[in-house]
Design brief:
Number of strands: 14
Helix content: 40-55%
Strand content: 5-15%
Distance between the termini: 60 Å
Strand order of the largest sheet: 2-1-3-4-5
Structural class: alpha/beta
Bound molecules: adenosine-5'-triphosphate, magnesium ion
Radius of gyration: 30 Å
Largest sheet: 5 strands, parallel
């Protein structure tokens, strides 16, 4: 377990010194404050427990207690009260103090109180993390987002999960949540108690993938010294997730199609037909139609898989999901890194909302993780997000003037139209994509006589 951080707030230096020395000796990380203002500042940097004097030069301890509890209800506060003030102690408990100690206090007793209090927080925290991660590992709510597109996806996943559909095809760019969606389908279905098996088709050579999927008989090939069940057999009653199906070799595509149509297969080197009851969820970030046209993917398999298609939309097409996703990851990294980030600066949020997120939710998650590791206060600012901070449109050699030249006006018009389309005609967002302000976008809408319907 990590060392707990304790904040000692008292304006009397001697008291502070004795507490700090003792608590540091035991091995705690201790920070101190002599005023209410300082106390709130230190608290914002992240502490687990506060020893708080009831009387401070710039405010009374009770109001500090309330502010601390407002900022983070998980912080434990032990009030240090004067002997006579029973009312004060009662008030403090009502306001959410964990306990109180009368001054002058017995240092040993106080240390015991601190230890007991910290035990409670770490338990509480553990319980919460367990609840969040284990109880419902892949409930449908794990897919964060309030955009119409995401609400639609969640409804679809719910329906598909409880339907008799034996195959599902998940498509979408990298990082849009296909893996997550596959698990969500499995755990929302009546197959949840049966296995969920997962294989990435591009990760193995064809022969190995075949025997992983369908199993093999003893002696089927050199080294096959015993019979082996494949994933389809092991997952009987459950779900097999075939990731990157677009990369599956043609011979295996044929064998998979046969299985999907007949629900039976033969192990490699075997003659017996084996019947299993599994749902196959296939995923790809390629456009399978294109792969079919190019002759890389069997058309019949494509049609068989495409009976129940679910498209995971790119993040840039649903910017409304960006703030809730950021809030979600800030919350989870607050717990994981024991940080206390409370806000994202509006200027940063504006940029985060207009950045196109080519890596989708995965990129956003990584950006928030990085920002949280960098941040020291309680706010994430633009500085913490180098990806979006960089002028996104910085042109370099990748944009080359063709030898035949271009029509600058036409190019400008085309870029403005694209920005407007991508932002759903939100002028502020379109402006941000082009690195201009809203007036400049308006001017160009006028100039090129652009209309939403076209
Ligand atoms: N709507 C969402 N809500 C919460 N987390 C999400 C959401 N979508 C994706 N994620 C998270 O983003 C990360 C990437 O998602 P995932 O691995 O499912 O993407 P993918 O579509 O399978 O990508 P790839 O094609 O690269 O395999 C994961 O950590 C996942 O939990
Ligand atoms: Mg994936």
């Amino acid at each position: 377990m990590q060392t707990a951080t304790i904040l000692v707030v008292d304006d009397e230096q001697l008291i502070r010194w004795s507490l700090v020395t003792r608590l540091t000796d035991i091995g705690y990380r201790v920070v101190e404050a002599g005023t209410a203002a300082e106390a709130l500042e230190r608290h914002a940097e992240g502490v687990d427990l506060v020893l708080l004097d009831y009387k401070l030069p710039d405010a009374d301890g009770l109001s500090v207690l309330k502010r601390i509890k407002e900022a983070d209800s998980d912080t434990l506060v032990i009030m240090l009260t004067a002997h006579s003030s029973v009312d004060m102690a009662v008030e403090a408990m009502k306001a959410g103090a964990y306990h109180y100690a009368n001054k002058p206090f017995n240092l040993d007793e106080l240390v015991l109180l601190v230890e007991k209090a910290l035990e409670t927080t770490s338990l509480r925290r553990e319980v919460r993390v367990l609840r969040a991660t284990q109880a419902q590992p892949y409930s449908i709510d794990r897919l964060v987002g309030e955009s119409d597109a995401m609400v639609g996806v969640r409804n679809m996943l719910r329906k598909v999960a409880v339907s008799p559909a034996s195959t599902v095809l998940l498509t979408g760019e990298s990082g849009t949540g296909k893996d997550l969606a596959a698990k969500v389908i499995h755990y929302a279905s009546d197959r949840a108690a049966r296995p969920f098996m997962n294989i990435t088709c591009s990760a193995l050579p064809e022969a190995l993938l075949e025997s992983e999927l369908f199993g093999h008989e003893r002696g089927a090939f050199t080294g096959a010294d015993r019979q082996k069940h494949g994933l389809l057999e092991s997952a009987d009653g459950g779900t097999v997730f075939l990731d990157e199906i677009g990369e599956m070799m043609p011979m295996l595509q044929a064998k998979l199609l046969r299985f999907l149509e007949e629900r039976t297969f033969k192990r490699v080197g075997g003659t017996a037909d084996i019947r299993v009851q599994v749902r196959v969820i296939a995923a790809t970030n390629r456009t399978l139609e294109d792969e079919v046209k190019r002759g890389h993917f069997r058309e019949d398999l494509y049609y068989r898989l495409n009976v129940m298609p679910i498209v995971m939309p790119a993040l840039r097409e649903r910017p409304a999901d960006i703030p809730p996703l950021i809030a979600y990851y800030v919350d989870s990294y607050n717990t994981e890194f024991r940080k206390r980030i409370r806000r994202v600066a509006p200027s940063a949020m504006e940029r985060l909302k207009t950045y196109p997120w080519p890596g989708n939710v995965r990129e956003l998650r990584n950006a928030v993780e990085r920002a949280m590791l960098l941040a020291e206060g309680d706010e994430l600012t633009l500085d913490h997000f180098p990806v979006v901070e960089k002028r996104t449109g910085e042109l370099d050699e990748s944009v080359q003037l063709p030898a035949s030249g271009i029509d600058l006006e036409q190019l400008e018009r085309s870029l403005v139209v694209q920005a407007l389309q991508r932002s759903g005609w939100n002028q502020t967002r379109a402006a941000a994509l082009l690195g201009v302000n809203r007036d400049q976008i308006r001017y160009r809408i006028e100039k090129f006589k652009l209309e939403k319907s076209v």
